[in-house]
Specification:
Largest sheet: 7 strands, mixed
Number of strands: 42
Strand order of the largest sheet: 28-31-32-38-37-36-35
CATH superfamily of the largest domain: Bira Bifunctional Protein, Domain 2
CATH architecture of the largest domain: 2-Layer Sandwich
CATH topology of the largest domain: BirA Bifunctional Protein, domain 2
Shape: elongated
Number of domains: 6
CATH class of the largest domain: Alpha Beta
Strand content: 15-25%
Number of helices: 23
Helix content: 25-40%
Length: about 850
């Protein structure tokens, strides 16, 4: 929300010594309104009014036509021969003629953004300055002159006094208010009243400790709205809203509707220049008088208004919910299919005119031909407006305010201001009839103990007394400065009724936070809690960090990606039609319509991160990510939505948990490019499947588990270069992940480099197995005994199967098995291979003899022969 300093000064007396934009922003920060930016005040002169004396068209070779001009800039001119007191300027805009009054920036000036102006030669001429457009002066572009430079006679047509001051050489900064500073603040969702100058001015008065300086633009001193009578335009509030599951009652979508009529309005009348300037400063484009009046008052008060062309209405205004099949073409020229929960403004209950609180429709739009205007000033339910805004993906200035809460007490006063402005500047006459229907619920009083405020905000003094300046009277004064009504009911106890513009105040803690805000958050002492002994990270948290640190030590860089994927990604990964990973959860309101699914594999999003890194020039990349995947499996039941009156029953909680799909934690890694760079030590080596397979296996081993590698065929990996990581043997074997090289088609579809290698582990499954194994075994001090064995097997027999059989036959004294050679050739025959293993034995209680080692080796060979058909090579 923007706040021009001059406009702010009309609503609150600025602090005499802190009236600059930077000081105002700092004061607003002290009450919780974070500074977003400072606008304006970024122009230093000379910036003057000029009159075009001559204009010579000069076509260029590139097809562009430029204009060599002489401009009268008063005493600032260069006094060229034949054109006294004129300035030679080259201009490329085409929307001006000889005799027009324009804005000229001269050498030595600085425009917004630090753009310094100097004399320079261009198109064969010396250009001593520049004729300015709105964008060059920091004004919203496409505001009044979308085709080029500012024409002052048009801009100031409705302000004769200003136009009289626009003589050549006059200071344009002062004339147009370009030196005015605008403070932009960030408004949090609970502070919706600050989406207005009224709210920001009130907060500023609190920031400087002088709430009495605030002048309410809709207070009784500023405007007196006439009472409702039976002559007003008929309005019916018909709302069949469903009962809210939380409160158990039906929340009306509209609890107050004020309608006023202004007749014989000159809709083509120009918007006053001061109002247009205010709209420009706030970042809005002036459109027409009626629209600009409603926008101006919305920015001033926070109350959105809507203007209907009265002559297009045929019946009473009826506020109701949409009916099945109804449609409305809104002002943005989009035909929208309405939902049964959309609150509508309708003509006679039949024709939709607007989505309440969001946007109006084309059928009743005010145009240049409009003569009679109906002003709508209403209060709509925040939840209803927010849901319609999100349902139609239509966020407007009105919806932003309604969904954060608008003051229902000012509805009639703002309508009266609109009537007055349309009468003053559009020549309209207000009807005597006034419609004001509805029943606004008053804020609920809050029982509050003031002692709790100072006990939580500041610790008491040593003798137990409240801290200085924060006793009972100080707390009450702070609450009253907020606009609350405070009634004393006993020692340190009060009943507080929040003001109508603060729907966010509903409990005692809310009031405590407000007192703390006014007191100053910096005055709250910081007290660090003492950590109890014997606590810290859980075992699973420590193990998860171990995995991350281990992969970082291997040279992988951790990244994070959004867990959302597109349906096309599942096809690109090569998943078959019956692959369980195609069973996904679809988000009802995704961040992007292109990626509405929750991922079932971390690789599905990690590969997208790899693609971005490679496209940015990182040809050698090794990345890993630990994150959750969502595996719904079969159809999940629908979760009940309990009310908020009481704690849900255990049965309800179990039903909610049963509707939540499993979300295990996975870890995935990808690598591409060079694994080892070229150098004096030798040639570069590309990343191979074995590198990633080894890294994945070492992760499992780092957690104290033994892992076996088995050839596998699973998308998205290359069928011949994919390994399955298995922990355990036989019936207790658990597949914990896969690793290898991506299938060429997958790499091409996902636009990652060919031969990219990847792995993914079910980290939760690994950690579960880690919890079942023995953490430590005694270390034997007896010597090792090594023996080698070469076994001949068929080519299709995996080496891992042979190793597993050797382990099973060798017994508990086998400490390690390592494959150190593979031979294929004439000595073993076609279709056969020789696998050479080194077996390491060690006993826990004795030194093994050669005879004992040979016996254990023979048992291992016999086991391999039985399991795989292996024959000892001689």
């Amino acid at each position: 929300m923007r706040a021009p300093v001059t406009w702010l000064a009309e609503l609150v007396d600025l602090s005499p010594d802190r009236g600059r934009g930077l000081d105002i922003a700092a004061d607003l920060v002290s009450v919780g309104l974070e500074e977003e930016a400072l606008h304006g005040g970024g122009i230093t002169g000379p910036l003057v009014v000029g009159r075009v004396l001559s204009k010579t068209d000069e076509p260029q070779k590139n097809g562009k036509t430029i204009h060599f001009c002489h401009v009268d800039v008063g005493e600032h001119g260069q006094k060229a021969a034949g054109e006294a007191d004129s300035q030679e300027i080259v201009c490329g805009a085409h929307n001006f003629e000889v005799g027009d009054l324009v804005i000229v920036v001269l050498p030595g000036a600085v425009l917004p953004g630090g753009f310094a102006i100097g004399a320079r030669k261009t198109y064969g001429h010396m250009s001593n300055g520049m004729i300015c457009s709105e964008g060059e002066l920091g004004l919203p572009e496409d505001a009044l002159f979308p085709d080029g430079i500012i024409l002052l006679e048009q801009m100031l047509a409705d302000d004769p006094d200003k136009l009289a001051q626009a003589v050549p050489g006059a200071d344009a900064i002062e004339l147009l208010g370009l030196g005015e500073e605008v403070v932009e603040v960030n408004v949090t969702p609970d502070r919706g009243y600050c989406f207005s100058m009224r709210g920001i001015a009130r907060e500023y008065s609190l920031a400087i400790g002088c709430p009495e300086r605030f002048r309410d633009p809709v207070g009784p001193e500023a405007v007196q709205a006439p009472p409702a009578n039976d002559q007003g335009y008929p309005v019916r509030l018909v709302d069949d809203a469903p009962i809210d599951a939380g409160s158990g009652v039906a929340a009306p979508g509209c609890d107050r509707y004020v309608a006023r009529i202004v007749r014989e309005v000159d809709a083509a009348a120009p918007t006053p220049s001061w109002m247009a300037r205010r709209l420009n400063q706030m970042g809005m484009r002036p459109i027409s008088l009626a629209v600009d009046v409603t926008n101006y008052l919305m920015l001033l008060t926070g109350q959105p208004l809507h203007a209907f062309d009265l002559d297009t209405l045929s019946g009473a205004i009826e506020v109701r919910r949409a009916r099945p099949g109804e449609k409305l073409r809104t002002l943005d020229d989009v035909e929208r299919t309405l939902d049964a929960q959309d609150l509508l403004i309708t003509d006679g209950g039949t024709t939709p005119l607007a989505i309440a609180g969001v946007m109006g429709g084309e059928t009743s739009e005010v145009s240049a031909a409009t003569r009679n205007v109906l002003i709508e000033s209403a209060h709509f339910d925040p939840i209803s407006v927010a849901r319609s805004s999100r349902r139609h993906r239509l966020v407007t200035e009105a919806s932003k305010r309604f969904e954060r809460g608008v003051d229902p007490a000012m509805t009639a006063a703002v309508a009266e201001l609109a009537v007055q402005l349309l009468g003053r500047f559009g020549g309209g006459q207000a009807d005597a009839g006034v419609t004001d229907v509805g029943d606004v619920r008053e804020p609920d009083p809050i029982k509050f103990g003031t002692e709790s405020a100072w006990a939580l905000i500041e610790p008491p003094t040593a003798d137990g007394r409240p801290p200085e300046l924060l006793d009972h009277d100080s707390v009450v004064a702070a609450l009253r400065s907020l606009g609350c009504t405070v009634q004393e009911v006993g020692a340190d106890n009060v009943t507080v009724t929040p003001p109508t513009w603060r729907p966010d105040l509903g409990t005692g803690p809310d009031l405590i936070e407000e007192v703390a805000r006014l007191r100053g958050y910096d005055r709250i002492p910081g007290v660090l809690p003492k950590a109890p002994g014997g606590r810290g990270l859980t075992l699973r948290q420590r193990d998860t960090r171990l995995v991350g640190n281990f992969l970082a030590g291997l040279g992988y860089t951790e990244v994070l990606s959004y867990p959302f994927v597109a349906p096309s990604t599942l096809d690109a990964l090569g998943y078959s039609g019956d692959d369980e990973r195609r069973r996904t959860v679809r988000l009802a309101n995704p961040l992007s319509d292109e990626a509405p699914l929750l991922r079932t594999s971390v690789l599905s999003t990690l590969l997208g991160t790899l693609r971005v890194n490679v496209s940015r020039g990182a040809r050698d990349a090794a990345l890993f990510e630990m994150g959750l995947v969502t595996l719904p499996g079969s159809q999940l039941p629908n979760a009940p939505v309990p009310g908020i009156q009481r704690r849900p029953s255990q049965q309800t909680l179990e039903q909610i948990y049963a509707a939540v799909p499993p979300q295990p934690r996975h870890v995935a890694l990808v690598a591409t490019g060079e694994a080892e760079a070229a150098g004096p030590w030798g040639q570069a080596r590309r990343v191979e499947a074995a590198d990633v397979i080894d890294a994945a296996a070492r992760v499992v081993e780092a957690l104290g588990l033994s892992v076996s590698l088995v050839a596998a065929d699973l998308a998205p990996w290359h069928p011949g270069r994919c390994a399955e990581l298995v922990v355990g043997t036989g019936s207790e074997a658990v597949v914990v992940g896969h690793a290898g090289e991506l299938h060429p088609k997958v790499a091409a579809a996902l636009e990652v480099p060919a031969r990219t290698c990847a792995a993914e582990l079910d980290l939760d499954a690994v950690l579960e197995l880690r919890g079942q194994v023995r953490r430590a075994t005694p270390i034997s001090t007896y010597p090792l005994a090594n023996t080698d064995v070469a076994l001949v097997v068929d080519e299709e027999v995996p080496a891992a199967d042979v190793e597993e059989a050797l382990r099973a036959g060798a017994g508990e004294r086998l400490e390690a098995v390592r494959l150190f050679d593979i031979y294929r050739g004439d000595q073993v025959g076609s279709g056969r291979k020789s696998l050479a293993y080194r077996l390491t034995f060690r006993a826990a209680d004795t030194t093994l003899t050669t005879k004992q080692v040979s016996a254990l080796r023979d048992q291992a060979i016999a086991s391999a022969a039985t399991a795989t058909g292996a024959q000892q090579r001689v």
